[in-house]
Amino acid sequence: MLKFLKGVVAGSGAGVKDLPYNIGEPYSSAWGSWTHYCGTSKDDGSPVSIFALSGSNAQDGHLAAGRNGVKRLRTVRHPNILSFLHSTEAETFDGSTTKVTIYIVTEPVTPLSEKIKELGLEGTQRDEYYALGLHQIAKAVSFLNNDCKLVHGNVCVASVVVTQTLDWKLHAFDVLSEFDGHNEAASGPMLQYEWLIGSQYKPMELTKSDWLAIRKSPPWAIDSWGLGCLIYELFSGLKLVRTEDLRNTSAIPKSLLPDYQRLLSSMPGRRLNSSKLLENSEYFQNKLVDTIHFMEILTLKDSVEKDTFFRKLPQLAEQLPRQIVLKKLLPQLASSLEFGSAAAPALNALLKMGSWLSAEEFTMKVLPTIVKLFAANDRAIRVALLQHIDQYGESLLAHVVDEQVYPHVATGFSDTSAFLRELTLKSMLVLAPKLSQRTISGSLLKHLSKLQVDEEPAIRTNTTILLGNIAGYLNEGTRKRVLINAFTVRALRDTFSPARGAGIMALCATSSYYDTTEIATRILPTVIVLTIDPDSDVRAKAFQAVDQFLQIVKQYNDKISSGDTSGSAIVGISAMPGNASLLGWAMSSLTLKGKPSEQAPVASASSTMPLGSASSNASSAMETPDITQIRASTSTELADQPLFESPRSTDGWGELENGIHGGDENDKDGWDDLEPLEDPKPSPALASIQAAQKRPVTQPKQVSTLRPKSTSTMKAPREDDDDDLWGAIAAPVPKTSSKPLNVKTSASQDSDDPWAAIAAPPPTTKAKPLSAGRGRGAKPAAPKLGAQRINRTAASGM
């Protein structure tokens, strides 16, 4: 039996074997005969506090009081009373003597006297923090006296501990007893262990052991006196030695002095109740106490009060003690946001406080809350998260973004609010570098392909800018399939001039990904057309781009001419000075520079957006802007433009398949199935096509009658003869436009018709019902020259 007991108890440094906690170093101070240790859990390593009390035998009075404290601490629960976790009692044998030790395990706390020295607060911030702590201890005392009819008996600095969130909590319940003032038959001591209380902390009636007077006094009489002792020790910074020292009030704040004097009244019946102290004391009316109190009762506040409070909180937090804000207010704010009781403006305050933390602390205390908020359905929360993503985006881990953040953010691409769609788009500049290739190819590019034909011109522009910025994070196969199609087929043909300008600059910024064949056959032909663009800014960028791409081709030509064929055909623009800022300049110009020819809402786009690009004219995060005000000047809807049409999809990017295929290069992301022109043949056949156009046709009348779309028809004077020479990169010819004039070809086709060179081209429509209404215009022309051909044309469709 003796060996068993010796095995249960380990050495003094290791603690009890069956105690599921490790005992660490002791603090320098503790209440009474207790020793306060730091400790950790053996299960998860979480910090705890361990209080130990030892006695020479089981009948020791200190041990009996300690057992009373354990029982009381286990049963009494309050937010401002120390939280009980575990307790045990063990015996150790040292020769002929027996040593009994009681262990109490609680939440991790620090003695108040040591925490005050650690914080080192001074002036107003010290007084505000003391007010907050005294407010919390007064609530605990009021709970014991008024609600539980219990008497603590020894409220002082030693009986107060501080949690990790800097909350003050009351403990040391060894003397705690029921108040039996209504029991007239009781004659013995009401406080069984009152001998543990130091004489300097005892009021006069307790010093005299006048239990009759104590029972006739209110329940709070003894503990109100203890509150006065606590206030004296707190502000004087000295441990109370004599009762007479309480009369020295030089260190007591003036706003607290009247209440202090009433707490220490010589007449027990006239002492101030702690509940009245909480309600009426002027000392507790400060910013810190009010802020913490508002957060504690946040669920009881209405939405207007919450919104007002959280909008003021970022500025208010700067005026409060920094350590209290980070250790007390920040956890409260994060918890309220996580569980939905806080409004969206609270996120600004959370990020403001989080900026005062170190990178490690920010990752531990703030990021988990932010990640959880992305799953919230509140649109205001989502807008706030996306607007401030630059403040925390770099701290997010790649796997967290790919698995937890992006799936929720991606829902904003198809949101009905244009403002939210644009914020979602811009957030990809921060999130895309952390996404896997599987997510980029299988999901992100599908969304971007749809946004490039969005009804909002600013969103189309920003999509082009984003593609230029994230091109480096795409694999080679995806870049080959996406970039040129997105920039030339879509952006350079957009009716919105800033979108065309963004396409030019995006091509320049990503030029290192194109070989000379692509530059010569697909990029230069489309860019050079924009040198005559109606918008001067687009023209300037087009000339710059032409010069840069021509230089690349010249460099390649010089390399080939010198006989060096070992290198690749890819010659990047990165070798040119100043290229690094090209895309950034394009993005800034969209915001800061407005064109008189553009619509007002677009020209006044906000310059505060993260990408610095054109933004939608949204007046509110919750409302969709008026689409008709910011569309480009055109007589038809953007969705009806031929340049956005595809034979396989209504959104202009072909069949978009949901899900992810086996390989990244085989994914259908919306760009790989684009057909830039009706003729899929590459442009190396330009010479043969030109020669075919100039050859005379043997049957001119038949061609002009049966093939209204052939090269024999007349062309508009403003178009070049080489319109068809752009091959696979030219924009589709509008159905209502006519082709440039070609006198030689027309004369060879119909030499007997002198009007053929200037006649209007035959219409493309072949709808029969329209012929009856429009055919009457052909009758007066019957006697004229060439009337037979006109009649045949009218009969075929007009």
UniProtKB/TrEMBL annotation:
Region (Disordered): 598-798
Residue spans of biased composition, Basic and acidic residues class: 662-671
A GO term for molecular function: ATP binding
Biased composition (Low complexity): 754-784
Sequence ranges of the HEAT repeats: 523-559
Annotated InterPro entries: ARM-like, ARM-type_fold, CIK-Related_Protein, HEAT_type_2, Kinase-like_dom_sf, Prot_kinase_dom
Polar residues: compositionally biased ranges: 604-638, 699-714, 735-749
Residue span(s) of domain Protein kinase: 2-284
Protein name, per record: Protein kinase domain-containing protein
Source organism (scientific name): Dillenia turbinata
